[in-house]
């Protein structure tokens, strides 16, 4: 277990370098991280499900200018790890456990953003020192600062993924076990409502009045094809 | 062109340009990333200590643009640096003006095309593929989802970065009109239309994957999902945050369980 958690945190830290550093090549999106962590812990379908939920819910937040969005990487990693590690230990349905894990991990996204603000303030000091040192005509300092920053990004996300899973696993397990029955079963109703919310978020971005016709056209054609396939079978 | 700067230098700059946001700071934003990006050229052109000091000082000033658009500006700056080294007069004074006049418009294009539309679009294509294949007879096909999402985004991303750098170096300031000629805003409209079609397909066929079985007729299950999605869309339109709706859904579900 310890080795698993350590390995996942290291992988998450490495992928996190993409979030701000490589300028976002999609590798650090939940859609990729979720299945990857799921694959490493031996349950890809949970990984895919978490990936879809997190990806859709925060799809509209963009890092434009100096604005920092919620960090989805620790949310995805911790949700998938908690769900898979506890699915055989606690006696509640897996979809309910998954939603509780997601609720518990969402604050991590905000902690990550808070840490990022401080890292960037530190960078301002580094930048000022670089300008002062520029007099010496030494280029290697610039590369050094870049390297240090990449390592800080790795470290931040490693800690954000490792600490909650390693130290919070037992706590989370106790909380889930001590929940009343209504909590454990009621959450199952929300199971399909959350993807619906996710699709609403996407539609808000893409569905302009001009294309609503196209949306309904493809909706009804798909339904018709669905029935046609059934008849053929 | 290519008198002092070699093609391999430009290749190095291309790969380094991916790291432009590594040392992002609130004071001068991408200044360290930008200087780091064009260092191979700096090493090639500036041999003495004094030249290198001036080079660092020139480029460690405020800079901020969209990361995918930064290579275009790097290309123009490399062009000017080379002309300065070849002895042309008054080129150095242009650098600051070139940077500050290009970074705003290019950031506007980049933020709009890449972050507002291309990234959500590739994500929604990936999500749709995962949802439609996750519980089908070939679950391995679901891995195509993330793969295709990465491909769509990065084909455009890598192409614009490469074109921007090379054309920026070869043509100088003309690069702005070159990027405008790609008609990236026309791409947005195509993306919106394709996204509408893909959303239609996914919303129609999602109910088996989510296990919605309230009605015996499949069509009604699909309509139920559409109706609920439309209701949430209404809530988002009046500016309720998704996170707030998320927690409300769960609270409501638990409440329903207590009542019935």
Write up this protein.
The complex is a heterodimer of chains A (233) and B (260). With 233 residues, chain A is mainly α. Chain A has helices at residues 2-20, 30-41, 44-57, 72-86, 94-133, 140-177, 181-186, 193-206, 212-232. The termini of chain A are far apart. Chain B is mainly α and 260 residues long. Chain B folds into two domains: 7-196, no CATH class; 212-259. Chain B has helices spanning 7-16, 31-37, 39-45, 49-59, 70-85, 92-133, 144-171, 175-181, 184-205, 207-210, 218-237, 242-259. The model of chain B has no long low-confidence stretch (mean pLDDT 89). Classes of the chains: A mainly alpha (233), B mainly alpha (260). At the A-B interface, α2, α3, α5, α6 and α7 of A face α2, α3, α4, α6 and α7 of B.
Task: Please tell me the overall pLDDT of chain A.
Answer: 89
Q: Low-confidence stretches of chain A at least 5 residues in length (pLDDT < 50)? A: none
Structural class of chain A: mainly alpha
C-alpha termini separation of chain B: 77 Å
What share of residues of chain A is helical?
over 70%
What are the salient characteristics of this protein?
heterodimer, A: 233 residues, mainly alpha, globular, B: 260 residues, 2 domains, 74% helix, 0% strand
Nutshell version of this structure?
The complex is a heterodimer of chains A (233) and B (260). Chain A is an all-alpha fold and 233 residues long.
